[in-house]
Amino acid sequence: MARFKFLVAFLALLICAGGVAGAWFFWTKFAQPEIVVNRHISGKGGGLERPDLGKRHFDAAIALLKEGELVSARDRLLYLLEYFPESATCEEAKRIVGEVNMDLLLSKIPLPGKSEHKVRRGEALLTIAGRSQTTIDYIMRANAKTSEFIFPDETLTVYPLNFRVEISLARSAVTVFDGEKLFKEYPILDRHLPADLKAPVATTVSERVAWLGNQPVNFTHPAYMNCAKWIRTGRIGLFIRQADPVADGAGEARPYGVMLANADLEELYTILRTGSKVNLVK
Known about the structure:
This protein is of the alpha+beta class.
């Protein structure tokens, strides 16, 4: 009888030990990793770093770019920017989105709204740009033209440019939006605004001017493509200029405005037209 009781006790001990071992296995393989992951995500737990949940979307977008899937790659990056704004990849994602958008805009790749216009006798770039809600500069760049000359039956790519601009003083950036979506962002290199010009300000582009020396010129001038340019808004002193402007006829020692790199200003000048919305924010 004593031996039977000892055997029962021994078996019970084995069962308990097995249960403890099973519980430990479950803890180490399943429960503990979940807690660690949760600590990563919540930022709690004594110095454990938050995982970059947007990185996989960034990597997926780069893979799409390498395959030539520009639209899909851009849309994946826009998703990243909207839902994972804390990701370390966001700044690079913004840059890539802007480059892809400009490539799509200026290329022959089809886009919603992009169309082909066949030139009719008597038409000029100015009238075509006005009817198509675009700019002469866009038509020239998208069609690789270096002069204003067009010919009957010539086919021109046109696109309605309905962008809006946000000038952020806090972020030192000029951001272009297509509806509510980011189109491209440009860094502000310098700024000089009137003391009484306080954000927020809502205005529009009132004038686009190209200067050669101290004289304004238009797109028919042979040197137009290499001229200094600036964009005037409806608010006094709120200009968008090149960072190292040449003499522009205003006689200002330091002209008012926000200053961009020359190449950035050329792009902005191409895609903004008179009447485009401009918001100055803090």
